[in-house]
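Structure ticket #2291
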Amino acid sequence: MDGTDLLTIGQLSTRAGIAASAIRFYEQMGLLDLAGRTEANRRLYTRDTLRRLAFIRACQHVGITLDDVKVVLDTLPADRPATPTEWEAISVVWQRKLDEQQQWLDRLRGGLGECIGCGCMSFEACHRLNPADGATRLGHGPRFWKGDSPADVAPAP
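Resolution: structure written out below.
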């Protein structure tokens, strides 16, 4: 690979629209690999790093953790750019996770004004749908957004 195939961190930052500090952070987390360094010790990256950065940012945008991103990126080859087939395989892995995210977004959009089974007891509806915080027996967090319903709340013993 000749020097024209490599980007400095400044070039990568500009091209990707991401701060150099974020690129260094992603590198520190093991999401990106350096291709080398210049004689002045500046970081160099291959052009396919742009695709990885776009993937990382897209995942973050929909709420996927960097730890989850790393697990998937670790399945890609480290010694060469990933093929379109390899990127497609990743998209299959994410389908279920994205479907779950979509369900959460749908519940959020439709239920902000209703009881979510969180135990806050601050709305009159909570007294009706979650009396005495019965949803706590189903587990922690917003139980009705997680898929439980007020009908799942058994009366207190």
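Closing remark: The longest strand covers residues 43-46.
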